[in-house]
Amino acid sequence: MIRHNNRAKSELDTYCNLRSLLKACAGICLLPVGVAGAEELVVTAASQDWVAREQLSGAHLTNLEPYCDGTYVAPAYGFEGYRVEENSTLLKAMADKASAKPESTIELWGNVELQQGEWWLEADKATLDRQTNKAWIEGNITGRAPGLAVHGTSASYNLDTADFSLENSSYVLHDRHARGEADGLSSSGTQEVVIQTGSFTTCAPDSRAWSLIASEIVLDREKGEGNAKHMRLRILDVPVMYFPYLAFPIDDRRRSGFLFPTLETSNTGRGISLGVPYYFNLAPDYDATYSPRYIHGRGLLNEVEGRWLTKDSYSELRLGYLYHDSEFLKEFPDENNGNRWALDFENRYRIADGWRSTIDYNAVGDNEYLNDLNRTLEIAETSHIKRSWDVNYGGETLSFRSRVSGYQTIDDGIAERDYPYYQLPQLTLDWNDRSEWFNYGVESEYTYFWRDNENITGIRRTNGSRWRTQPDIELDLSPVWGYFKPGIRLDHTDYLLEDEPEGNDSHISRTVPFYRIDSGLYFDRTVQMFDHDYNQSLEPRLFYVYSPESEQDDVPDFDTSVPTFSYSRLFKEDRFVGGDRVGDNNRLSAGVTTRFNDMDSGIEVFRASIGQIFYYEDGEVDLNGSGGVTESESPYAGELLWRPNQNTDIKISGLWDAQESRTEKGTSTLSFHDAEYSKLLNLSHRYSITSNNPNDHIEQTDISTLFPVTDSVSLLGRWLFDLRRHRTIGTLAGVEYSDCCWRVQLVARSYLEDEDNEESRLDHGIFLRFQLRGLGGLGTGDESALSTGLKNYNARENYRDERYQW
Questions:
Q1: What pLDDT is recorded for position 790?
Q2: Who's near 327: CB < 8 A, 6+ residues apart?
Q3: What confidence category does residue 18 fall into, taking pLDDT thresholds of 50, 70 and 90?
Q4: Which of 291, 668, 735, 757 lies most in the core, judged by the most C-beta atoms within 10 Å?
Q5: Where does 202-250 have alpha helices with state H?
Q6: Nearest CA-CA partner of 516 in 476, 479, 568
């Protein structure tokens, strides 16, 4: 098969002289190529395929990180009119000159190009041995396959097996932004590359920020992993770590192997700790990670995480164990002989259509484990660790939940009488339906409450069961311009109590009706501001509720609380949350909301609400002295939300007491981020009166920011300040450097261990974290300080991971 070429006469003569050779070249197709315009000699595969930012366009430029100077782009290659075929055995060739010995060898030289299957090679000279079906290639060699480029000085190639070896070589993996050099490189097909005495890095050709140097590196493109033997990690050409064996990813698939080690320090007596996690990719539906960590002064902490995914369920188990913690025994000499453990188990299971099961079980061996040792357990509680098992059903009109829950209290400062109750079990059954004019339903619940009451006296010693049912019916009149919904709810509760105080009944029954009227109007209009059209609405609302007083002093408090008052509480029937108190009400809530919605997108750009409650009778029912009502009107409650653009939110909420002419509570926040989350700014102010004394209040400011100084350097910080006590509560200050292959963060952190203690002092710490593109992270400290301290920091990290595949 011959491709037609427009050539000068001398080139056509060369081509015609080659035609006689084709008869002796069964299975080989020779194609002539021009010799004019010799290409500039390239040094490595990386420098050959590297394209500077200013020369990029289209998708290559759009997907390039802002701090990258360029990227690797494979040029067009192959023979025009021929497809790259993975399993093809036909060898196609072009050269300036060729000679052949029948049944022996074919020699090609001058701009030699060879193509077989997915491999395409160019060189100065090639010799084809027809007896062994091998090729020896010399000169300026470049080899290409999809996503792969290699370069070297001499090579051999097996036409039968597509095995390829190259000396004095270099390579590029385009999709992974990776490159390297080697004394020798070999490949079995195009999916496995073996590098002898070579390197691997994701840095640009002119950067030596980091690299892996190994006696052998195997890049398995089919499995998506690399394996290095006798590996040294170099940072700025300085060896920092050695591993006899290391596995690392070369794409986004999961694989078994050592993860990057963690090196941490602490100012709480733990000293330095070093961990080397290992990931087990056991099967497509389950895996595990074992993380041994040696902590100076404490010993070896073993942490295991396992995950299991099926069609209908997901399970995750985390375990931690440390034998004989000598540092812990200094402070707690009689506790568990210094043996420390913790576990965290989560399971979600779809039983059948509409039926779901959720298990969340957590436990620790001592109250200080989470403060001293926790790194992988997903337990956020600081006082009561919750354990629960829920079985739920959700239908169109019927829903059911069965819950068994308990707690482990880990705060020694909490009295036993204030421990939460176990629910053994809690069963709820709700039914809701509607007709043309009415909404109706029934909510019902049975719960048995228990806690250890050996050291508790009085009514707080009581355990027992509670049955509560709440039938409800409502007339629904909802024309386009508003709504009018009068309704009645009956709250009936029965208690069977144990260990109640002497003289109290063990059986208590209580029935309280709630009468309500919920009404509102809707006005809207189109307005134009700043050359943009908006829909503005005005939504006044009146909500009246009446319920008589019921004596409840003998009813224990199993799960009831008084929620913080806010605008959303204006339109709730009861001022209590939970089933042990039912408030007496004779009150009217009045509120009004205005909104501005973008006419093009429908997004709510601005919302402002204000309202108040008017009490016609005192609320006599209370909960341990709180929740009662003695005023004729509540403070004004208000909310404001403004989104001047899609990247900025301004929120204000608060309570204003007109009778005392004072603010009881106020929160103001401004949050900004740019489209790529490279700039973050968060400002907030919080004020709250905690008692009848206006001088007894909380007032704090919180400022956090992250902004780029250059494309590669960003500064970050946070300052949390107590305006009442005129002292700093916590700070973060750091710098981050990012380029195309690595990122480093240096952050100093200070915080008060006890905000309520006037004598508490700031503790200080520093953490340093490296992130090497394609390998993972190495560093000191806990990144949660950034994720919790800087709003939108996690969104920034997710954006980077998804867009740039860090």
A1: 84
A2: 269, 270, 297, 298
A3: very low
A4: 291
A5: none
A6: 476
Q: Which long-range contacts (CB under 8 A, 24 or more apart) does 611-615 make?
A: 611/541, 611/567, 611/570, 611/636, 611/637, 611/638, 612/570, 612/636, 612/637, 613/570, 613/587, 613/588, 613/589, 614/587, 614/588, 614/589, 614/590, 615/586, 615/587
Cα–Cα distance measured from residue 357 to residue 402, given in angstroms and rounded to the nearest whole number: 9
Give tens-digit pLDDT for 251-301.
Answer: 767 777 666 666 665 544 455 677 778 888 888 899 999 989 888 888 899
752 assigned to some structural domain: yes
Q: What is the pLDDT of residues 129-159, one digit of tens each?
A: 888 888 899 988 998 888 889 999 899 988 8
Look up residue 549 and give its amino acid.
E
How far apart CA 54 and CA 73 sit, in angstroms, is 14
CB 295 within 8 A of CB 301: yes
CATH code of residue 195: 2.60.450.10
Each residue's pLDDT tens digit, 413-460: 888 899 999 999 999 999 999 998 999 999 999 999 999 998 898 889
Give the largest Cα separation in the chain, rounded.
Answer: 120
Instruction: List the structure tokens of 304.
Output: 């295991």
Distance from C-alpha of 223 to C-alpha of 221, rounded to nearest angstrom: 5
In a domain, 263, yes or no: no
CA nearest neighbour of 259 among 273, 243, 238 = 243
Number of domains within the chain: 2
DSSP type of residue 561: B
**Is 782 part of a structural domain of the chain?**
yes
Buried residues in 375-392 as b, exposed as e (16+ CB within 10 A)? bbbebeeeeebebbbbbb
- Burial of 760 by CB count in 10 Å (0-12 exposed, 13-18 middle, 19+ buried)? middle
Task: Classify residue 675: in a domain, yes or no.
Answer: yes
Pairing mode, strands 91-95 and 28-32: parallel
Query: Residue 417 has what DSSP assignment?
Result: G
What SS3 class is residue 584?
coil
The predicted-structure confidence for 515-567, as pLDDT tens digits, reads as follows 999 999 999 999 988 888 999 999 999 999 999 999 898 899 999 999 989 99
The distance from CA 211 to its chain's CA centroid, rounded to whole angstroms, is: 28
408 has pLDDT over 80: yes
User: DSSP character for 646?
Assistant: T
Beta bridge partners of 738: 743
Contact between 585 and 574 under an 8 Å Cβ cutoff? The reply is: yes
- State the distance between the two ends of the chain, measured CA to CA, in whole angstroms: 46
Which uninterrupted H or E stretch holds 24?
none
pLDDT higher than threshold 70 for residue 757 = no
Range of the domain at 797: 660-806
Token digits of residue 174: 């385009």
Continuous H helices in 50-202 = 58-62
Q: Are 382 and 411 in contact (CB under 8 A)?
A: yes
Task: Tell which residue, 721, 724, 716, has the closest CA to residue 748.
Answer: 716
Final residue in a domain of this structure, among 203, 222, 255: 255
- Are 357 and 348 in contact by the 8 Å Cβ rule? The answer is yes
CA distance 318 to 177: 34
* Whole-prediction pTM: 0.76
Dihedral (CA of 63, 228, 230, 768) sign: positive
The two three-digit tokens of residue 617, written as one number: 């009778």
Given a contact cutoff of 8 angstroms between Cβ atoms, the answer to whether 493 and 509 are in contact is yes
Burial of 259-278, coded b for 16+ CB within 10 Å and e otherwise, reads bbbbbbebeeebeebebebe
State how far the Cα of 724 lies from the Cα of 729, in Å rounded to an integer.
11
DSSP 8-state symbol, 245: E
Structure tokens of 642?
Answer: 């403004």
Cα–Cα distance measured from residue 579 to residue 423, given in angstroms and rounded to the nearest whole number: 13
The count of residues in the chain is: 806
CA atoms within 13 A on the CB side of 397: 9
Rounded CA gap, 477 and 129, in Å? 92
522 touches 537 (CB < 8 A): yes
